[in-house]
Amino acid sequence: MEGLLRSLSEERDGSADALRVVNYFDKLLQFRAGIDELVRSTAMLIGTEAGYNGPGGGCGFNSLGRMRPQDPPDEAVSSLLSGSDAESGLVWVVPKPNDAEMAQLILERMALAAGTILVRQAEASRLGDGEPLRLLIEALPSISELREEALRRLGFRSDWRVRVVVARGSRSELSEPRAWREWFGPENRCTAPVLIGNAHVVMVHNGDRLPGSPMDGADLVAVGATASALAPRESYLAALRTLRLCSSTLGPRMLFYDALGSLRRIAEIEPPAARGTELVQKMDVLLRSAAGLGEILALDSYCRHSNVRAAATELSLHHSSLAHRLKNVGAKLGIDVFDAAQRNDAWLALQLLRVAGSETDEA
Q1: What is the mean pLDDT of residues 201-218?
Q2: What are phi and psi of 205, to 5 degrees?
Q3: Residues 161-199: b if buried by 16+ CB within 10 A, e if exposed
Q4: N or C: fewer beta carbons within 10 Å in the chain?
Q5: 329/294 Cα distance (integer angstroms)
Q6: What is the mean pLDDT of residues 147-163?
């Protein structure tokens, strides 16, 4: 790109400049750039600012390739996107002084490239039952040709790093590609969802900056480890294990595998084995009543904070009321929750309680 920038600044042959710009954007499409890559590259090419704004969100970058707000400044020039397969959107650039003609050319090529990218994403989302993604997750490692073809159909490159996201819930939004695209945002390329067992599964590129709460319609969401796009099964398995530590009753409803730390070992325990602990069984009995659920939630908050006042603030309780509730639940479980060692045992039992209550995996 630096070579192209020098050529555009040193030579003033308009036709040669135009050809270089056309070739530049053609290369971006050839290497299957996403919207975020397109906008960043455009901003660095023109040497000012560029952005994209669409129904599901947008992105903006400055001349150094750093993110900026997606809304165009007053001095920007823009172009609307439209097409039968792509959702409408807006691309914009800030022209340099005395270089409006070149800015218009770059804007036109950027708009064409953005339209092509959105069409590709729409086509990838209309792959019906998600067989390409299912093949990538379930196929034997030796079937490399099938994996490469599946990636091609999904619009993913074989050298990309990806994450697999697994969600459970009963609402129809989980089956809608558009809902997933809007949740991920335009900076993250995602596949259409596929139902594997009792979970909806999606593969995402650039999945390091995801929303911190579940999408609409999802009860629980887990994000797997990073993996090669050619071999995402390990990320899928990591997401399934992470989902065991999510709980719609106890929380959290969304977790990242990378954030589990030592809890990864607990997540590897199968649900039947987690139910075999006496303390877990006592907690499970308490969960069956409204009063018992409140006591377990109080214990969970206290174990996480190791501080009565902090836990009381989280639960919107007076600290003396929480202390009384903790004494009650401790007596029912046969432990002293204010003893550090026993409180640690209770914290581990609460994690096993989540695992014990999780649904059967479809690995």
Answers
A1: 87
A2: -100, 145
A3: ebbbbbbbbeeebbebbebbbbbbbbbbbbbbbbebeeb
A4: N
A5: 10
A6: 88
